[in-house]
Each structure stands twice: as structure tokens, then as C-alpha cells.
């Protein structure tokens, strides 16, 4: 079977179903790690990979790659996705007034937060997206995720897994050196990814088990101009045609600084919604990160002229969750 084209010009823009299906079939990893697998491409991270990644720490510098978790976030309520609501249940005022009921003058503060698990910097778990009613590894979606949560591939299975070599591909800076920002609707191609790697040099070579971070610059623009339609609107992102690259490089995971990882609007004239998600999550078993803050890291990497680092990005072990908020850190 001929592998689907990696050139966006070859896409049949009238046939999202066919284009998605061809890539799902060509790059499907079902059974690759056994019938009981719950990790997908995270299996590419092993102990030796982590040891090698740890050797990249030279300066001890740590960069957080997380956006804030607060009411000033980008969410607008789509499918009940709201910004976090942070509420104090005990405060310094209560302590001053002595109404907390504690002895010998001790007081304290406590708080609670309510938020969708994918309202800010986060991972999409393997139970997040289905393809024609099928979940990762060829399971029926209804057998995996029920009202009780993801009973099979819940995000808790990845809690001690996602530590590996991270690689930043600053595509925004490479393609738009004056602004460092790709325009909304720009579809990042395989050629763009490979050109960025070549321009950045050997430290950005992508290897098996890596976690690849793709910076588009959209978050920087949203911070400057206001959130606008950052959450769900037009955005630069990966083309559907990058599915082959995501498969053959054998990366463990990938994350971007955008809401949806892939280009929006999607690359079809017929109705389409997140076609690359439909290929890579349930078929490749690829873990996807969204809304990561890659701006400081990009500046640090450019200054050091190295684009590889130890990356720790553990999800919260929320039993049965199909995604998780995270505070990923790059250690250089």
C-alpha cells in the first residue's frame, strides 16, 4: 500500500473521511505493545532513554512550561470548558479574628479549585479521542470510557512515565524570524519540521522516545493582543500530513503552544474537526500536549544554542481521567 502523501497540496480537501482513514490505517500501532497496552507511544521511553536525558543537565536551570491556572485564562465555555475557579476556604482574616477554633494562636489558610482538566497546560490522554467508536489499541470506546471514567487507559497509568529527552522545534522563529510567530491557519508541514531541525542544528535532531515541543508563537501573540479566539479559534498547527512523520520518528509524545495542536481551521472544504487528533491518539497511541508555554524556553535554547534538555511532565494521577493539568519543566 502506498503511504499517504506528506504534501498538503495532495490532500483531497473534499474528503476528510478518506484522508483520515488512509492515515489511520497506514500508521496504526494497535497490538504493537500487546493487547493489554495502556501507554501507546510512551512505551518508547525506557530507563536508558531517561539516563541519557539526565546527562543533558549541565547548568541546573529549570524552566516551567506551564501557563497560569486562574480566571484570566483563555477558556470561553466551549463544551463546558471554563477557566479555573479558585476559592479560599480559610484565610488570614479568619486567623486574625480568631474564629477558626484552633488553640494557642495558630491559624491557617486553605483553598479549593474547580476546573476542567484540560483548561490550561495539559496532556490529552489516550481515552480522549475515538475513531469511529474505537479507542486506542482497537478497543470499543464504550468499553473504555464510561460515566465512571477511563476504565482502561486512564491518565494515572502515565504518572511515572513522562520523563525523557525533550526537544524544542521553534518553527515560529525559523519560518518568521522577524516576529517569531506563525499566522493563524498556517499548516506546519513535515518539510517545515525538518527545515527547523536543520537550522537549529544537531541538538534538535529528533530520536526515538523523545518528547517534541513545537513552538508556533501563537501564545506570545495572544498574550500581547488578548486571548481573543485562542481557545478553539483559528491557529497555526500541525498539518494532517505530518501523521507519517509522527509515526516514523517514534517519538513518545508531542506538545504545542496552541489550544488544539493541529492547524485550525482544518485543511478541508467539507466539515472537519481535529482530524489529526483522530489519527494519532486512538490509532498511533500518541500522547498530545496543548497550551504549553514555550516562549521562555525558546529564548533560553536560542541563547545556549542547544535545543535538547531533560523534560519532566508527569500528569496528576487522577484515576480514570482522559487528560490532566501539568506543570512541565525543562531542565538544562
| Named CATH topology of the largest domain | Glucose Oxidase, domain 1
When the domains are counted, the total is 2
State the share of residues found in helices, binned by percent: 10-25%
Radius of gyration: 21 Å
**Separation, N- and C-terminal Cα atoms:** 43 Å
Mean pLDDT: 97
Anisotropy-based shape: globular
Total of helices: 10
**The CATH superfamily title of the largest domain:** Putative cyclase
Output the strand order for the largest sheet: 1-17-15-9-11-13-14-4-16
Given the helix and strand composition, which structural class is it?
A: alpha/beta
What top-tier CATH class of the largest domain fits best?
Alpha Beta
Features:
332 residues; alpha/beta; Glucose Oxidase, domain 1; 2 domains; 9-stranded mixed β-sheet; two-stranded antiparallel ribbon
Short characterization:
By secondary structure, the protein is of the alpha/beta class. It contains ten helices and 17 strands.
What does this protein structure show overall?
By secondary structure, the protein is α/β, with parallel strands linked by helices. The protein folds into 2 domains: 8-78 and 117-331, Putative cyclase (Glucose Oxidase, domain 1, 3-Layer(bba) Sandwich), CATH 3.50.30; 84-114, no CATH class. The protein has 10 helices and 17 strands. The protein has a 9-stranded mixed sheet. A two-stranded antiparallel sheet has the order 2-3. A two-stranded antiparallel ribbon has the order 5-6. α9 (275-284) links the parallel β13 (253-256) and β14 (287-290). The model has no long low-confidence stretch (mean pLDDT 97).
Amino acid at each position: 500500500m502506498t503511504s499517504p502523501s506528506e504534501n498538503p497540496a495532495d490532500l483531497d480537501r473534499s474528503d476528510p473521511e478518506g484522508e483520515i482513514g488512509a492515515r489511520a490505517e497506514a500508521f496504526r500501532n494497535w497490538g504493537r505493545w500487546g493487547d493489554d497496552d495502556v501507554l501507546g507511544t510512551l512505551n518508547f521511553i525506557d530507563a536508558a532513554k531517561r539516563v541519557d536525558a539526565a546527562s543533558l543537565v549541565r547548568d541546573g536551570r529549570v524552566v516551567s512550561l506551564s501557563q497560569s491556572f486562574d480566571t484570566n485564562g483563555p477558556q470561553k465555555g466551549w463544551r463546558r470548558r471554563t477557566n479555573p475557579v479558585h476559592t479560599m476556604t480559610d484565610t488570614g482574616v479568619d486567623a486574625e479574628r480568631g474564629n477558626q477554633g484552633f488553640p494557642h494562636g495558630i491559624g491557617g489558610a486553605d483553598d479549593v479549585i474547580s476546573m476542567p482538566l484540560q483548561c490550561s497546560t495539559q496532556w490529552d490522554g489516550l481515552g480522549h479521542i475515538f475513531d469511529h467508536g474505537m479507542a486506542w489499541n482497537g478497543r470499543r470506546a464504550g468499553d473504555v470510557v464510561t460515566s465512571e471514567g477511563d476504565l482502561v487507559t486512564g491518565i494515572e497509568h502515565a504518572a511515572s512515565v513522562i520523563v525523557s529527552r525533550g526537544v524544542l522545534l521553534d518553527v515560529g522563529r525559523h519560518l518568521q524570524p522577524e516576529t517569531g510567530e506563525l499566522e493563524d491557519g498556517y499548516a506546519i508541514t513535515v518539510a517545515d519540521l525538518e527545515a527547523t531541525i536543520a537550522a537549529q542544528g544537531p541538538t534538535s535532531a529528533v530520536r526515538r522516545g523523545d518528547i517534541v515541543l513545537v513552538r508556533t508563537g501563537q501564545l506570545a501573540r495572544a498574550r500581547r493582543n488578548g486571548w481573543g479566539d485562542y481557545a478553539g479559534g483559528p491557529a497555526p498547527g500541525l498539518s494532517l500530513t505530518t501523521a507519517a512523520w509522527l509515526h516514523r520518528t517514534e517519538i513518545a509524545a508531542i506538545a504545542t503552544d496552541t489550544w488544539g495542536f493541529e492547524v485550525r481551521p482544518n485543511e478541508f472544504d467539507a466539515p472537519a474537526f481535529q482530524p489529526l487528533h483522530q489519527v494519532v491518539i486512538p490509532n498511533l497511541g500518541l500522547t498530545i500536549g496543548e497550551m504549553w508555554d514555550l516562549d521562555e524556553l525558546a529564548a533560553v535554547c536560542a541563547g545556549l544554542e542547544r535545543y535538547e534538555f531533560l523534560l519532566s511532565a508527569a500528569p496528576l494521577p487522577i484515576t480514570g481521567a482522559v487528560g490532566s493539568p501539568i506543570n512541565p519543566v525543562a531542565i538544562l
